[in-house]
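Handout, tutorial session.
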Amino acid sequence: MGVEVELQILDSKTKDLSPVSPKIFERLGGEHKNIKPELIQSMIEINTGICKTVKEVRRDLEEQIVRLETIGKEMGVEFASSGSHPFARYSDRIPYPAERYKYLIDRNRWMARRLMIFGLHVHVGMLDAHHAMAMNNAMMHYLPHLLALSASSPFWQGKETGLASSRVTIFEALPTGGHPCTFQTWEEFVFFYDSMIASKSISSIKDIWWDIRPHPEYGTVEIRVCDGLQTLRETVALVAFVQCLYAWLNERHRNGERFSPPAYWILRENKWKASRYGLEAEVILDARGNTNLLRHEIESLLERLLPYAASLGSEEELTDVKRMIHHGLGYERQLRVFEKEGTFLAVTEAILHDFKRREPLFWD
């Protein structure tokens, strides 16, 4: 596995986003393989090396967080993780001075400038290209589960959106963002990819920002649908959930099961339901329109995955997913703070507090 987390950089006094990532890289001494710039200067990405266990994921991410927090304290900034900042304005954001980001803004204009959003990306290594397509198609059925568990962007530019995750709606405006195109075989994907390159619609796999995508350069399937989670412990729990899901799906694949992606209308509708209602979404189970509460689907799935967690050494982390459901997910906690305090500043301070603690305040 490899994990990428997009962090917010906040001014310690105002709690607004702060455009200081270039200065952070000066303090780091230039390029750093596990800390990278992002599209805007008030965002920074941390990532792991290649990890076999979720405990390695936690160790790698913790190391980068501590490094950033040490620098941030000297500079008067703090770091936070959630799908969106509650009150920051995208019109105030400053792009990072890199040729790739200049190209993205020039090509996508206003849609790229709105990308003041923060996510979690999880790469899982594949055996070969055909295995990658099988696992990609299998995992598509569980994107609503991952979105709901990670949802942490109910606020956008000082507005309550009525959504558990507003972040995913921002990506969907991009021509190569949001809902993935679906393919039955690897050859179909290669034909599509070559055609996109030939038509100059993309320049590399990095220009495809789907909720899930094969990543040939790394030999992985990358899940991109998740909001940034507010604490390190929740991030690691969700990564454990992803790894156990893949272990279960891979065993079914080895036993001869063949996976097709969901019908496109189901893929779109279930994502909408998860982004709107979170755990309370009534997700569609089949082409006849049968539904079930997403909360119940996840709880049932967790029980099924326990044997895989045992074999992977991640029982504690998978159990944390149950704690997340019981104690309240990011979007639920943010809404509770807003209902109680009535200000977006209070919500932002709660997000910051969560990140510093590494785990939610009221966990057992």
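The second record follows below. Compare its token runs with those of the first.
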Amino acid sequence: MLQAIHVSLESLNLVTLAPMLIAVAGGLIILVLDLINEKLDKTLYVMLTLLFLFIDMGAVLGLNVNERGFFDVMLIDGISIISQLLIIVGSMLFIPLALTSKRFHEFEYPEFFALFLFMIAGFQFMAASDNLILIFIGLETGSLSLYTLIALHNRANSYEAAVKYFTMGALAAAFYAMGSAVIYAMSGSVELYQVAETVSARMAGNGAGLLPALAIFGSAVLMLVSFAFKLSLFPFHTWAPDVYEGASAPLAGYMSVVPKIAAFVVSVRLFGMYIDLGIEWVRDIILALAVLTMTLANIMALVQGDVKRMLAYSSISHAGFIIAALALDTTEGNTAIFLYYALFMFTNLGAFAMLWISRHKVRRFNNRFDHPYEKFAGMIKIVPMGAVIMALFMLSLAGVPPFSVFWGKIYVMQAAVNAGYIWLAVLMGINSAIAAYYYLKLVVYMFLKEPVKSVDTVYYNISKPLMAIIGLATVATVGAIFYIQPLISYFYYMVSASGY
């Protein structure tokens, strides 16, 4: 005879689900409003999206550190909270661009804003769980929404970009599913803390044997391949430049930051588990991927003829920089990941948004690219303030002090030196020097070259919302020196509270 199972609401701790439910509810409300009245001004949906993001942020700030909820599949630790805050802040920077007077047509669709909120909920589920099944659900929810957002740009190369991203994402999902299956087979659990306990007990009891060793090897390799795709690490990075080129400029900037924050959180939990178990070859592979990614991406960026593709390879190089911090498996190293992205987020989103001020439907300067270097030639004579701001973003990305990304880079290098990896810090410095060349190349075009023929016919879209977002990114980039220490202290405290 079956016995009824009673579950109290207190034990479910549903408040841990509140941030994701707010984002999902926001998306559904936008869809319902459009069904009721299709003639509503689309500006309403922008403001509603921002409102739900503010409420979402409030729900995250109201969470207690180191709690579990909903049958223990939700994990609210320090890393979960700071990553969700970064995801929401990055989204708040992006969505007001829909208010610009010459907006991309996809901002006219209420479905765009609904999918955007569903995507954020998916990324938050990834950040707030150590359950492999829930992480997979969050991963696919966020990814499927993002594929559609790219395709909504409604250009030939946007469809191509969406299909490429979908294909690569499906392949990454397949590797993740296979890796999760192997982890479950060797441990009998999909909860990472239980997996760690089971595998540790087997290794301590001399029960490793050939089969468990193969299972550990197989699961780690499958997961490494999966997240190498998601983080655009060498040699699984080839999709990124084409996808960024096909997406709208602001969305490309958003993609270079926010989805990677969610993927890095899962990587910290997953690969940190392997390294903590003493499986050193996982650390070695991650370090090799980091060095190859940052070096080869920088070399490829040197030969790009399009600023957008250069920034795409730049983002790949920065991802390689950050994955090295993950391999250190120290509190300082994991703090460096979140500090770096908190600083990099403003600068990179600002740089991609700057590409939009000279957007046009016809490729006037190059039959192949939308943003060739020639388009920015002599920009100081046409839009002086725009040239100065873009130069600030380029100097920050190059790691020139005192701009924001410099502090992220120096903290990662410090973490590497303190962990005993002096050679890694040296390689990071060399790569930063290489990267400075292609960032300064754009500065040279803007300040030292003459405008090319018919450059004055380019329409400069400098609307107030766009100016506000770029202005905020500029203030954050230049004023980083004033808030760097509080950020480090806060992130270090939160990561320490997570036990990493």
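Points raised in discussion: The chain has 21 helices and two strands.
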